[in-house]
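User: Before I run my own analysis I want an independent prediction to cross-check against. Here's the chain; please return only the structure tokens and, at the end, one sentence I can use as a sanity check.
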Amino acid sequence: MRIPSQLHRDPLYRRNGKVGTGATAVPPDQSWRRVVRLGVVLALVLVLMRQAAKPVVYEVFFPAQAQSVVSERSPNLGAHTSEGPLTTVEPPSSDQGLSSGQGTSVLTATPFVLDVDQQAAADQQTSSWTTQQATDFLANWLSGNPADAALPPLPADSTETTESNTQPATVYLALACRQHLIMASKDGTVWRSADGPALSATLAMHDPAGSRFHLLRSATPSGQVAGVLPLLQQPEVYRGRSVIAEGDVVRIEQVVASDNPFGLDHYWNLWLKPKDASSRPWLVVVAQLPQEMKGLIPSAAETPTGGEHTALSSWEVKSPFPTVTIHGEFLKRLTYQSAAGPELTPVVAGHVEFIQANGNPAISVSQGSAQRHDDAAPDPKPSMVWIVMAAIGIGGIFSAWVMWRTASLNRQLRKRRSKRPVTLEAGLLAVLCCFPANAFAESILDLLPGFDQSNLQAITWPVDAEPIDVSGLSQLHWDDASLAKLIYRLNRLSDNILQQRQSTSATGSGPHAEIGDAIEIDGVITELKSMPVPDELNDMLELHDLQLAKLKLDDNDFTIVAFEALPVELEIGDRLTGTGALIGQYPEIDVRVAGRLHWNPARPMSPAGDFLSASGVDLSRLPEVAKLDRQSISANDSPVFFPAIGAARRVSLNRESSEVQRLRASVVDASPVDLLKSPSQFTGQWIRLRVETVRATRVAVESTERRMQIGGDEYYQIDAIGDLGNVQLKLEVPDGDPVVMENRYPVTIVTATLPEFLRDAQDDSLVTTKTIMVQVEGFFYRLWSYDSDLMTAHGGKQFAPLIVAGVIEDLSPKSTDPIGVNSIGRVAAFGVIFGIIAVIAFGWITRRGDRASRERRYRSDL
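Assistant: Structure tokens:
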């Protein structure tokens, strides 16, 4: 029986002292061929071992950890012995500089405190500084010299420390000067000479070799993890603010610095590939390149000489790319030339805080040498005894403070209980009776140019000579031209202005409301009539129809209201709400005029419409929202978009309520294809669909009115991907071939609160990237358009369904091993071990049988 070897295909058994049979048989002394084959196998094993020694092979299984490159040092903050109230100093806003003259403060979450008088004196001094004076002050202070000429004489600031000018007022001045220089730079342009002071000053303040670096680092807020898109879309919000930039280094440039008093000869441009899944690169600028990154630069790098902001040397970083974390300030959006044409990128100037090698050999070697150097002189660590004693001391102090605070509150409570009850004097009661609350109603005649009380009363008049007979729409004549002009004027006033002027007491037809007063409108329609706008005013006022309605108020009184015609079919029993102006009073009824009223139908078309109406969403605007399909989000969306986010927030916070349960029971299962085919049919409906999340961006809301509508200071935009199934989409683009999309399509989700499973480890990050399957329930808003790299390359815009989500559920498997990979691995491991044991046993049995066979053959020969 011939059993070939798997290594060299020769038989395992020798015949007649030879290996092989026939012509291929070789003498047993020519075993060198086997040695050559084993040598080849050994070389292959060595090559595999050499490749296995590379750290990048294990990055997938064991990700590299970020290493800090900035030494920790607590600066001598000095003592502060000034008397009076102390306030913590906060950072200046992006729209305020040195010239504002207001109390712009720059420190937060630090041990620095600043006297109110000192802060006012510093602000008064810095309001008169020019750019050159601010630059000279910073250069003088950063060089370690006392800022005696520039520092204003601050009260109660006579106590000096061992380190000169470490008082909070001086640090306040330095950071305010930097903010002033940054705001003086021009946003959205290439580098200009006017940008030099801001760039050089920021780099000098972030130079790790500077004498003030650790002091400024402890006094500056840590910043937020920023993304490229928020900085590009909201530059004025983040200008001058401390941010954290993260990304992979793909290019390093050495740039000569312009003439500056800070002693900077050159600086470094680091082009990063962002970590927020954005395809746009961004630029970070650092004064010094950390020692850990020097391995990325060739040893023969030249010293920079040349013009301003000119990259004299540029090096491409080879894969794998290291990841850096930059702490600095956002300066501006820089215009640069790319392969696709002029582009914008945000510029962050600061210092490198952390480096993650990601398997890059140059970084790994540098970090290893740095660690060995640190191990030679390790920092002393506090003993466990001192840690325990400190913990016990802190706990005792905290307990004593709690006990003292509780006793103090109890004493105050007993004093309040023992006080005599407060009573109103008779004179005050008489004054209140003579001047009731109704008398404080405010008129809006000053907001209606061209109208006074006589003009308003002349808009409508009774048909009969006796005004006592006026009780409905048929008993009044109208001046349609003046009425249309008045409604046009009211439409141009914001709801906040009207509500501030509204007379809360004149809700009915009481005698206290006067002609021209702002008055509340809230009633049920009992009579309805339409009125056309004169043809000569159609185009001028952009009004085509007006509507007249008789409303029954909550106190069983009636009123007649004239308003702009709504784009929906009104019915008897529907409720109209809003704020208008009083223009007529009759014995049985009054007459009011309003601009755009809110419509609450008596018979909502769906539970979703009922819930939106109860949440303050004007359902009459939904047809207008449907007409905005495939357009960007604009101011026309505000009346519905932000209240819809607030309604969805109610769903997420009150899932157990009956109205939310009724809403979720009416959910409509939809797919991206359904939403793309018939978007108007789903507008305002509560839908459900499955998507895969890609990125979540936090969007700040600045308007107070919008914050009240959504119930918070921010909302989140989640970029996701939906499944198209077997459908192929062709998107038409102007002057080009259609763009074909298959299998997947983008979907945009807006939510007031982000679920915990989608949050990043750092809660204050602006952008969170996480890929996970979710099920979304929310109100479908409309199709909206935005810029994307794919559609921009074809000359068009991307459009996608926009959903205001109230419920987001995680669909990822709860098990850590959903497909049984661990079980399969264990079975495979046991199989391999069993196979090895079986091979060893088979070889041992075979050798034993061969030995017995040779012994029998030997005895037979004898």
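Sanity check: The CA atoms of residues 7 and 37 lie 8 Å apart.
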